[in-house]
Every structure is written in structure tokens, then in C-alpha cells.
């Protein structure tokens, strides 16, 4: 076991507090070591961020858009996908994940597979940083807040991330075409 790994020696993956868990969540997932307190903290941070933004937006007189044009929704959705993958899978952003995850393997297209480590809030953060599906809520929330506060700048950032997404798919199509041509 690595010296900075806080999982118990038993190899069960259970957090040290599992055996002594009491209260309303004690029977939720016995022996699985779920960092429910860490999840709650992250959910509170997310809710506080979105709520705080809403309060500041209202105080500044900003109005929420009455509708979201389909093109903007598609642009933001594509950017959310790419932003989440960049944060959770890209080699270059490993420094963000390193305190909370361990490299499991390198995969194709310069992506990596990291696994969370530690317990409590550290484990919950590692799970967030290793999961593009989980991270997409955070990236999407940030992009939508940006869309309210600075729509033009947010569209520009979203367009750049969306362009990278399209470029990725073109790279995959080129590689597949090249493989088929070479037999």
C-alpha cells in the first residue's frame, strides 16, 4: 500500500469509519466504504455555488434568459461533454486529479483511467474527478452560470470546447479510415 493511500490494509475498500457507522445512513451500503459525508459536502459546495451565483445575479439586476435557443443548448451540451472529459481523463490535467486519484492505466487518444483514493472528502473528490458523468454537472453548471453572466464570452469558450470535440471525432474517423485502407 502506498504511504499516501488512506484505505485500510484489509483490502475491502471500506473506509475506517464503516465499522462504527451509526445514524440514519448506517444501513445504506454496509461494508462499501461510501464517503456519504464527502458526497454531502460536495453537494453543499455545488448548491452554494449555484445559489450564490443566483443571489449575486439577482442583486446585480441580471435577468435569466426567458428561453435557451436550441443552438446554444447544443453548444453548451457539447462543451460540457468536452470540459468534463478534459478534467477527468486528459493526461495534461492529471495535476488536478493527482491529490485525489491514482493512475490506473493510460488508454487511447491521450486519455487516462484514474481511480479515487483515500477516504471521506478526499475519496468523494477523487470519485468526482475520475468520473466524466459526475463532473459534467459541475462543468454544465459553470457554463450555464457563465451564460447568464457573460453570454458572449461563454459562447466563445463553449465554441472552442465544441470545436475540440468535433476535431476529436474527425481524428477518430481519420484513424478508422486509415486502418481500413491499410487493411
UniProtKB/TrEMBL annotation:
Entry keywords, A to Z: Membrane, Transmembrane, Transmembrane helix
Residue numbers spanned by region Disordered: 1-26
Origin: domain of life: Bacteria
Entry keyword Transmembrane helix: yes
A Pfam family this chain is assigned to: DUF1360
Transmembrane segments: 36-57, 128-150
UniProt keyword Transmembrane helix, yes or no: yes
UniProt cross-references to InterPro entries, sorted A to Z: Mycophage_PG1_Gp7 (IPR010773)
Record's protein name: DUF1360 domain-containing protein
Species whose genome carries this gene: Actinacidiphila paucisporea
Amino acid at each position: 500500500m502506498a504511504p499516501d493511500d488512506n484505505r485500510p490494509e484489509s483490502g475491502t475498500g471500506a473506509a475506517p469509519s464503516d465499522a462504527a457507522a451509526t445514524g440514519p445512513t448506517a444501513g445504506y451500503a454496509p461494508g462499501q466504504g461510501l464517503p456519504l459525508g464527502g458526497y454531502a459536502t460536495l453537494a453543499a459546495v455545488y448548491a452554494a455555488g449555484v445559489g450564490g451565483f443566483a443571489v449575486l445575479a439577482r442583486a446585480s439586476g441580471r435577468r435569466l434568459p426567458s428561453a435557451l435557443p436550441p443552438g446554444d443548448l447544443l453548444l453548451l451540451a457539447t462543451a460540457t461533454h468536452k470540459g468534463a472529459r478534459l478534467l477527468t481523463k486528459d493526461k495534461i490535467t492529471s495535476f488536478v486529479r493527482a491529490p485525489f486519484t491514482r493512475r490506473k492505466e493510460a488508454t487511447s487518444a491521450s486519455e487516462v483511467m484514474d481511480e479515487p483514493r483515500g477516504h471521506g472528502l478526499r475519496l468523494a473528490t477523487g470519485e468526482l474527478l475520475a468520473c466524466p458523468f459526475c463532473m459534467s454537472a459541475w462543468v454544465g453548471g459553470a457554463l450555464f452560470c457563465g451564460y447568464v453572466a457573460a453570454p458572449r464570452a461563454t459562447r466563445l469558450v463553449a465554441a472552442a470546447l465544441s470545436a475540440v470535440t468535433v476535431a476529436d471525432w474527425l481524428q477518430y474517423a481519420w484513424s478508422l479510415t486509415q486502418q481500413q485502407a491499410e487493411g
